[in-house]
């Protein structure tokens, strides 16, 4: 088992590529990198690779990209950031409404 290590989500693909030889099985990933913590935006909610892929069948991955996509698809909501954030504004002007002064 590897020593506990921390990695950012943005660095995870390169880390998986550097640390593993492909093709690789998920059981090998769990054995070698299971204790690696993927840091969430709120670091109190960070999880290990083993816990992120705990309910994934033991598949084989041909590349770091393929494994990365599996891991990212299993990240909990804590990794999303601000949910439902929209920097474009929340009101939609309807033609003829008081908010619609441009039409």
Structural overview:
The chain has 103 residues and is α+β, with helices and mostly antiparallel strands. It is 29% helix and 12% strand. The protein contains four helices and five strands; from the N terminus they run βαβαββαβα. Strands 1-3-4 form a three-stranded mixed sheet. Helix 1 crosses helix 4. It is elongated, with a radius of gyration of 20 Å. The model has no long low-confidence stretch (mean pLDDT 81).
Task: Briefly say what this structure is.
Helices cover 29% and strands 12% of the residues. The chain contains four helices and five strands, in the order βαβαββαβα. A hairpin with a 7-residue loop joins strand 3 and strand 4 (47-48).
What layout of secondary structure does this protein have?
Layout: E1 6-8, H1 12-19, E2 24-25, H2 26-33, E3 37-39, E4 47-48, H3 49-52, E5 60-61, H4 64-73
Parallel strand pairs: 1-3
Antiparallel strand pairs: 2-5, 3-4
Helix pairs in contact: 1-4
